[in-house]
Prior knowledge:
Blueprint: E1 5-10, H1 16-26, E2 31-33, E3 36-38, E4 50-51, H2 54-62, E5 66-72, E6 75-80, H3 82-88, E7 92-96, H4 102-109, E8 113-119, H5 122-132, H6 137-151, E9 159-162, H7 167-182
Parallel strand pairs: 1-7, 1-8, 2-7, 3-4, 8-9
Antiparallel strand pairs: 3-6, 5-6
Amino acid sequence: xxxxxxxxxxxxxxxxxxxxxxxxxxxxxxxxxxxxxxxxxxxxxxxxxxxxxxxxxxxxxxxxxxxxxxxxxxxxxxxxxxxxxxxxxxxxxxxxxxxxxxxxxxxxxxxxxxxxxxxxxxxxxxxxxxxxxxxxxxxxxxxxxxxxxxxxxxxxxxxxxxxxxxxxxxxxxxxxxxxxxxxxx
Length: 185
């Protein structure tokens, strides 16, 4: 029996990385969390990723070492082919996905793909984006607008997690939904 691919989506600053980290730490016997390969320094941002140069990334694309890959925000992102092996071995896998790549992921994985949609209230998101200090106020406003637009197209059947409050509350929401999914016979 093939496993599920939990494809986590949400606006930048919604807390995807924090939720994924919590699953990695507390749910590892049931769900494998895949690292993304990204063309940005390892110390940049909060995501636990594998940093690659653009040349290294291109080499991996050429040798078909990614199950999925895309470009966003001036960087290249990839998920290694190991996720396909894990899924075919019956393991459940969680990835930090891309909203822009969702249609391609759905085509590739079909009913094995389960979207996890992380949302956050606009005022909370604004505070988080400003606090991390990576974007100008204008860029933050653009991100907020994009977040609103994306929330309007949340896929039907997505597991929804509201991360506007405490992380522990959001983790509880997510774990409750995942337990139903991964404990099915």
